[in-house]
Amino acid sequence: MGERNPPLEKNLPSFWGGRIFEGTIWLLLGLFVLYPLFRLLLLVFSGDGAALGNLLRPFTDSYARRALVNSLILALSVGTLGTALGFLFAWGVTRIPLPRGGRIFFSSVTVLAFVSPPFTGSIALTLVLGPGGILPELLHLSNFSIYGFPGTLLAETLTYFPLAFLTLGGILGALDPSLEDAARSLGSTEGRVFRTVTLPLCVPGLAASFLLLFAESLADFATPLVMGGKSFPVLPTEIYLQITGMYDLRGGAAMAFVLLLPALGVFLLQRHRTNGRSYVTVTGRETPPSRRVLPSRRVKWAVLGVISFVTLFIFLLYGTILLSSFVKVWGVDNSFTLDNYRFVFTTGLNSITDSLLIALTATFFGTLLALSVALLAAERKGKRGGALEFVSLLNYVLPGTVLGIAYLVAFNSGPIVLTGTMTILVALCAFRYDAAGIRAILASLRQIDPSLEEASLGLGASRLTTLRRITLPLILPAVKTGMRYLFTVSLTAISAVIFLVSVDWSLVTVRILQAMTELLFAEAAAFSVVLILIVFTAIGGINLFFRLLFPSGRKGPGGDTLSHGQVE
C-alpha cells in the first residue's frame, strides 16, 4: 500500500510545474533569446583574425578603453544614485502620511521621466541647463556647461530612477509593520530599525533595481550621444556610431559583446547576495494600519524636501518640452502655433497607431511571460530555477543596439524570417522588457510565507485556485509594475527597434529621432507630449483593470479579508 498521507507536493502536483508548460516556456526563450544570441556570436567570431582584433579593441585602443571605463563608471553611478533616489520616493509615498492627492502626485510625476525616449529628456536638459539655457541665463553663469559626465549622469538618473521607485514601492507597501514594531518594542531607535529591519527586507528589490538600472545605463547610447559628446565617450555610443556611421556590423557587435561581461557579473553578484536568504514579510496576518509608527518630523521633512526638489526639477524639464511644442522655433521664433500638433496627427498619425498597437500587444504577451517565468523560477529552486531566470534576463542584459542587430541577423533569413513584420517588434519588446516584471514578481514572491499556499492546498484548493486567490493578489503590485513598465518602454523604445522598423511599421520614437536630427525640436516635443498623454492614459487603464479584478478588501480563502497593503 502507498503512503496514507503522501507529501503535499506529490499529492497536489503544481499547475506551473507541468512539463508541457515548462517546455513551452523554454521553447519560447530558446527561439527569442538564445537563438538570436547564438546567431550574433556566429557573426562576431566567424571570419578571419579581424574577429579577435575587434574583441580586443576596447582593451588595446586607448580611446575605446576610455569609453569602456566611462561606461562602467556611469552605469555604477546611475545604478547607485537611481536606486537610492527611487527608494526615497518609494519610502516617502508608502511611509509618510500624505493625502491621497499627494501620493498620486509623487507617484505620477516619476512616470514623466521615462515616458518619453531618453534623448527627449536630454534635449530638455540642454534647453534648461545648456549654453544659453534658462537657468544659466537666469543665474548669469556664462561659463557653465552641463555636457560630459555630470550631464549624462543627471539625464540617465532622472530617466531611470522611476523604475527603482516602481519596484521598491510595491515591496515597501507589502512589508509587515509588526516586524518593525517588534524591533521598536525592544528599544531600538528609528535609525536602527531602518538599518536592521526595513532595509535588509528590501534587499531583493534594491538588488533588482540596481541590476535593471545598471543594465539600462550600460545599454543607453542616445543620452550619452546628446549629453556626453567627445569629452565623455562611452562604449554604447561608439558601438552605435561604428554600426550606423562606419557600417561595420561585425566590429560593432564584437565591441558590444564586451559589455556583456560586466552586466553578467553584476547579475551573478546580485544573485549571490540574495539567494539562500529569507525575506518573508507577507504572512497572512492582518496588521491594523494604526500600528504603523510615523517617521520623525526631521526625517519626514528631509525626505519630502528631496523628493519635492526632484519633482519640481522634473516639472521644469518637461514643462520646457510642453512649451517648446507650441512654438515655431524654440529660442528663435517663440510665437504660438499649433502646426506641430497638426503635423503629429496628420503626417505622424500612422506612427502613433503602429506604436500603440505594438505596445499593447507586447504588454499583453510580455506580462503573461513575466508572470509565468517568475512563478516557474520560484518553484524550480536551485540550478534549474536559476537557469530559467538567467536566460529570461539575457535580452535585457544585451545592449539595445546589439539586440536589435541580433534579431535582424537571426530573423532576416531562414529558417525563420520575421523581419519587416509586427511579430519581430512585439517579440523583441516582450522578451526584452519583461525583465522588470520578472524581477519585481520574484522579489515579491520571496516575501510570501510558503505556509499561506500550503494552507490553501491542504484545505483542498487546487494549484490554480491557490494562485488566483492567494498568490496573485499578494504579488499584484509587482505584476502592475511589470505591466506599466512594459507598456511604457515598448512605446518609447528606440535603441533596439530602430534596426527592425520597415516601411510597413513606423514608430513614434523613430519619428522623434528623425525630427531631432533635422533640428525640428518643436515637432519632436509635440510627439513627446502625445506619448506622455498616451502613457498616463494607459497606466490609468491598467490600474482600473486590476482594481476591478482584485478589489480592495476582497475576501480571501476561509473568509479572511486581505489587507489593503497586500492587495493594493
Helix content: over 70%
> What is the strand content?
under 5%
Biggest sheet details: 2 strands, antiparallel
Which structural class do the helices and strands define? Answer: mainly alpha
- Kindly report how far apart the N and C termini lie: 47 Å
Cα shape: globular
Indicate the low-confidence ranges by residue numbers. 1-16, 287-291, 553-568
| CATH homolog superfamily of the domain at 69-233 | MetI-like
CATH fold-type name of the domain at 69-233: MetI-like fold
CATH class of the domain at 69-233: Mainly Alpha
Rounded radius of gyration (Å) = 24 Å
Question: Oligomer, anyone?
Answer: single chain
The succession of helices and strands, N to C, reads HHHHHHHHHHHHHHHEEHHHHHHHHHHHHH
How would the blueprint of this fold be written?
Layout: H1 8-11, H2 19-45, H3 50-60, H4 62-95, H5 100-111, H6 118-129, H7 134-138, H8 149-174, H9 177-185, H10 190-201, H11 203-219, H12 222-227, H13 235-244, H14 249-274, H15 297-324, E1 327-329, E2 333-336, H16 339-344, H17 349-379, H18 383-392, H19 394-397, H20 400-411, H21 422-433, H22 435-445, H23 450-458, H24 463-474, H25 476-492, H26 508-517, H27 521-549, H28 564-567
Antiparallel strand pairs: 1-2
Helix pairs in contact: 2-14, 2-20, 3-4, 3-14, 4-5, 4-8, 4-11, 4-15, 6-8, 6-15, 8-11, 8-22, 8-25, 9-10, 11-14, 11-22, 13-14, 17-18, 17-21, 17-22, 17-25, 21-25, 22-25, 23-24, 25-27, 26-27
Structural summary, described in words:
By secondary structure, this protein is mainly alpha-helical. 71% of the residues lie in helices and 1% in strands. The chain has a domain at 69-233: MetI-like (MetI-like fold, Orthogonal Bundle). The chain has 28 helices and two strands. Strands 1-2 form a two-stranded antiparallel ribbon. α22 runs antiparallel to α25 and α26 (508-517) packs antiparallel against α27 (521-549). Mean pLDDT is 78; it is low at 1-16, 287-291 and 553-568.
